[in-house]
């Protein structure tokens, strides 16, 4: 149900928005037929405690959760001030009468390797996505050690929440979005989750939680699969080291909660380097009372039966850069693998590439992001309508950069003049092609949220038909790349 809206136009034709709801007034901004409300608290939590819902609607200054500099910040993008009291959402919604039943509701989880990022980053401003006819929520969730610390003393205090504070934040954000969606014209009948990178992995993890599944009508995974969860026991020793580094006895939770927040924030956030991210301890943790099995296993067991899925990745998630310049260096980079696995990988990528740098970039792309994402689609297609894509768009004039990790966010949200995208889209050709692709992507994405099917032209076939949509300008269809790019990794037990 849409409640009373009041606009105050400035001389520059920007508009201040006042939204009067049954739980109190909200203040925001209106632009081009879309409203936005910022800094809306969905929960509160002390350090290393499960989040609690807030009473009523509480709006405050926009914040990000504590974090080291991530990719956005390192490339010149802006982030809000960091505070531990950071459980907020930004909400974007159409300023027109909703259709019968309300607009579809989408909840986007940001990426950043579970170490950095936030829902209020300018590149995620969802004006264009909402204009297509959706209510879009963009929550923060706690990051790094503050979101995912595993520690024996914390397990004794709360055996359910330990190591999963950020995951519980995301679950609470879903409950909040469903409750307040009607205030913005949204449907209360189910949420479409979407996320990119770590946000995609978080989205898939939520599909393994029965309470979350009851709130979900569909899921969109962009460059992130379902395997990035950790055994709690494996990271307890890491938690003890984190406590010691903060100057605390690992059993002294009072000391840990009083420690300066900077002592608990890991360095080097946002890395896509496979050997660092794959083994990071700051991810959702398996827990018999919350997350008893990996999300991929839960989907394989049919636990997300009936939830439509749209999943895909960029063609070159990790572009060739400072990788090994020789095949001996490639083999050395694989030294963490078992000898038989290492030899099989080396032979496979030597057969596909002449340049070891390109081979290693392809290996990282496929091992960490592309193949795990397509693997989810292959599992879920047996239980619900499933569509897959490969994003192959390359910036005109900068084609050598490839279709790299995160580039899909530029056309989808359309914030091409925000850092770090601004230097990529300085030419008219680059902007026009990205904007044309973005219009198509938003129609597919919102159509999927509305109807459970990404309707548009060309027709997007079901994944079981053997094709993926090529997201490029122009659009097209491609044979499923899984056998060529992923089958060996699966055979070797790496997916």
Large-scale geometry:
globular
The level of helicity is 25-40%
- Output mean pLDDT: 93
Portion in strands: 15-25%
Structural class: alpha/beta
**What about the largest sheet?**
14 strands, mixed
CATH topology: Rossmann fold
Distance between the ends? 44 Å
Q: Give the number of helices.
A: 17
Main features:
495 residues, alpha/beta, Rossmann fold, 14-stranded mixed beta sheet, 32% helix, globular
Strand-helix topology:
Blueprint (H helix, E strand, L loop, with lengths): L4 E5 L5 E7 L2 E8 L2 E11 L7 E8 L11 H4 L13 E7 L8 E7 L17 H5 L3 E5 L4 H5 L3 H6 L7 H16 L5 E11 L1 H9 L3 H4 L2 E7 L7 E2 L4 H10 L7 H6 L15 H4 L7 E2 L8 H6 L8 E6 L12 H7 L5 H14 L3 H25 L5 E6 L17 H5 L14 H24 L15 E5 L4 E4 L2 H10 L4
Parallel strand pairs: 7-8, 7-9, 9-10, 10-13, 11-12, 13-14, 14-15
Antiparallel strand pairs: 1-2, 2-3, 3-4, 4-5, 4-6, 6-8, 15-16
Helix pairs in contact: 14-17
Description:
- The chain is an alpha/beta fold.
- It has one domain: Rossmann fold.
- The protein is 32% helix and 20% strand.
- The protein contains 17 helices and 16 strands.
- The chain has helices spanning 71-74, 127-131, 144-148, 152-157, 165-180, 198-206, 210-213, 236-245, 253-258, 274-277, 295-300, 327-333, 339-352, 356-380, 409-413, 428-451, 482-491; strands spanning 5-9, 15-21, 24-31, 34-44, 52-59, 88-94, 103-109, 135-139, 186-196, 216-222, 230-231, 285-286, 309-314, 386-391, 467-471, 476-479.
- The strands form two sheets. Strands 1, 2, 3, 4, 5, 6, 7, 8, 9, 10, 13, 14, 15 and 16 form a 14-stranded mixed sheet that branches. A two-stranded parallel sheet has the order 11-12.
- It starts with a strand and ends with a helix.
- Residues 268-275 have low confidence and may be disordered.
């Amino acid at each position: 149900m849409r409640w009373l809206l009041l606009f105050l136009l400035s001389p520059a034709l920007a508009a201040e928005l006042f939204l009067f709801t049954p739980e109190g007034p909200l203040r925001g901004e209106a632009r081009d037929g879309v409203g936005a409300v910022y800094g809306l608290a969905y929960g509160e939590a002390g350090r290393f405690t499960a989040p609690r819902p807030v009473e009523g609607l509480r709006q405050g200054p926009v914040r990000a959760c504590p974090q080291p500099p991530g990719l956005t910040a390192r490339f010149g993008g802006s982030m809000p001030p960091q505070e531990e009291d950071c459980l907020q959402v930004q909400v974007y919604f159409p300023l027109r009468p909703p259709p019968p039943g309300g607009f579809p509701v989408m909840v986007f989880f940001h990426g950043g390797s579970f170490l950095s990022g936030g829902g209020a980053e300018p590149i995620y401003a969802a004006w264009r996505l909402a204009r297509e006819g959706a209510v879009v929520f963009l929550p923060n969730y706690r990051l790094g050690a503050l979101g995912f610390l595993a520690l024996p003393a914390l397990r004794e205090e709360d055996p359910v929440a330990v190591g999963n504070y950020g995951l519980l934040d995301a679950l609470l954000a879903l409950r909040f979005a469903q409750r307040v969606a009607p205030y913005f014209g949204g449907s209360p009948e189910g949420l479409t989750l979407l996320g990119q990178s770590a946000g995609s992995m978080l989205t898939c993890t939520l599909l393994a939680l029965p309470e979350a599944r009851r709130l979900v009508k569909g899921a969109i995974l962009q460059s992130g699969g379902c395997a990035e969860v950790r055994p709690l026991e494996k990271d307890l020793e890491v938690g003890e080291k984190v406590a010691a580094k903060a100057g605390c006895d690992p059993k002294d939770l009072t000391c840990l909660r009083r420690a300066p927040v900077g002592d608990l924030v890991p360095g080097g956030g946002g890395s896509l380097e496979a050997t660092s991210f794959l083994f990071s301890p700051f991810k959702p943790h398996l827990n018999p009372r919350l997350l008893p099995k990996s999300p991929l296993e839960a989907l394989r067991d049919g636990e997300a039966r009936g939830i439509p899925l749209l999943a895909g990745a960029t063609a070159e998630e990790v572009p060739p850069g400072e990788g090994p310049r020789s095949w001996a260096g490639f083999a050395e980079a694989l030294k963490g693998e078992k000898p038989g696995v290492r030899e099989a990988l080396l032979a496979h990528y030597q057969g596909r590439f002449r340049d070891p740098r390109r081979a290693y970039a392809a290996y990282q792309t496929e091992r960490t992001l592309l193949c795990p994402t397509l693997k989810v689609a292959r599992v879920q297609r047996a239980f619900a309508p499933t569509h897959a894509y490969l994003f192959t768009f390359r910036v005109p004039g900068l084609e050598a950069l490839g279709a790299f990790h995160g580039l899909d966010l530029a056309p989808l949200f359309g914030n091409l003049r925000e850092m770090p995208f601004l230097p990529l889209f300085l030419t008219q050709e680059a902007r026009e092609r990205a904007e044309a692709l973005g219009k198509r992507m938003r129609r597919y994405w919102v159509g999927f949220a509305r109807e459970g099917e990404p309707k548009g032209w060309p027709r997007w076939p079901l994944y079981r038909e053997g094709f993926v949509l090529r997201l490029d300008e122009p659009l097209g269809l491609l044979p499923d790349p899984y056998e060529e790019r992923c089958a060996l990794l699966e055979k070797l037990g790496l997916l």
